[in-house]
Amino acid sequence: MLIDWHTNLQLPEHADDGDEMITRVGIEVDATPKSHEKHIVKVAKKFALVTMNFPRLKVRVPNEFVAEYAQKYRGRAKAFACVNPLDKNAPRELEHAIRGLGMHGLKISPVYGGFDPWCKEAGRIYKTCDRLRIPLLWHQSAGYAADCTLEHGNPILLDRIAREFPKLRMIVAHVGQPWVGECMVLLRKHPHILADLSARFHRKWQLYNGLMLALDYKVTKQLLFGSDFPLRTTTDALREFRALNEWGEGVTMPKFPPEIIEDIIENRPFELLWPEG
């Protein structure tokens, strides 16, 4: 079953003019519901919706907006809320998003939010997620807006959190780029942590190396397909993923097994993160 594990939903008014998270990708993007329905809903059997609420970067997508859209596709969509861990009301807002709005997990990013993932404020959020039995989707990787804090981005920093919360299910978005090797070590150590491949298909060399490391570390079963819409549509991401071994005439590289590419695309059910259904 084709699941797009990483798609974004956003209206133009949710980001201030000149928002770097939109402009730095170098392409015109459209993450509106109409575009999402055209490029995701009509292609993927199921999909995850990611909320972006990072005031530091002038992006404020309301949880209510994403939750309402997800309700249209009950049974097909899982929605990740987003709260600011440094806000004293964050645990209460997260609980409302899950129990009141019907959302299914939390999107969190020390890089975008500008906080140490080991700080006590963030610890309150992990405890809330653990109590609510919901997964965390981490943007624990690079960010390119000027106010991103790269010192908080290495996926290795999640090892301590995974040790303290051994039942807390997690996804590392974008295979933790550029720290892809560190991400694979993290997956090997913690089988309850997964990683998605979103926003890596246009970085072919990086993705190829990351997948070869995953093969070597025997963690390919922990990898998820995702487009990072609107950066890519589901269709475009599928095409680029399946063309991973095509390097051009005269170039010979060891092949990443095509059957594992298809396994990642077709055999990663929502039950990996939501075993209760």
Features:
single chain; about 280 residues; alpha/beta; TIM Barrel; eight-stranded parallel beta sheet; two-stranded antiparallel sheet; 11 helices; 10 strands; globular
Architecture (CATH level 2) name: Alpha-Beta Barrel
Number-wise, the strands total: 10
Number of helices: 11
Radius of gyration: 18 Å
The main pleated sheet reads as: 8 strands, parallel
CATH-derived topology:
TIM Barrel
For CATH, the homologous superfamily is named as Metal-dependent hydrolases
- Mean pLDDT across residues: 95
Shape: globular
Poorly predicted regions: 18-24
SSE class: alpha/beta
Give the C-level CATH assignment: Alpha Beta
In spatial order, strands of the major sheet run 1-2-5-6-7-8-9-10
| Terminal residue distance | 15 Å
Q: Would you kindly provide a brief summary of this structure?
A:
With 277 residues, this protein is of the alpha/beta class.
Explain what the structure shows.
The chain is of the alpha/beta class and 277 residues long. The chain has one domain: Alpha-Beta Barrel (TIM Barrel). 36% of the residues lie in helices and 13% in strands. It is built from eleven helices and ten strands. The protein has helices at 20-23, 33-41, 63-71, 90-100, 110-113, 120-132, 158-164, 180-189, 204-217, 234-242, 258-266; strands spanning 3-8, 46-50, 53-54, 59-60, 77-82, 105-108, 136-138, 170-172, 193-196, 223-224. Strands 1-2-5-6-7-8-9-10 form an eight-stranded parallel β-sheet. Helix 4 (90-100) runs parallel beside helix 6 and helix 8 (180-189) runs parallel beside helix 9. The longest helix has 14 residues, at 204-217. The two termini are 15 Å apart. The model is unreliable at 18-24 (pLDDT under 50).
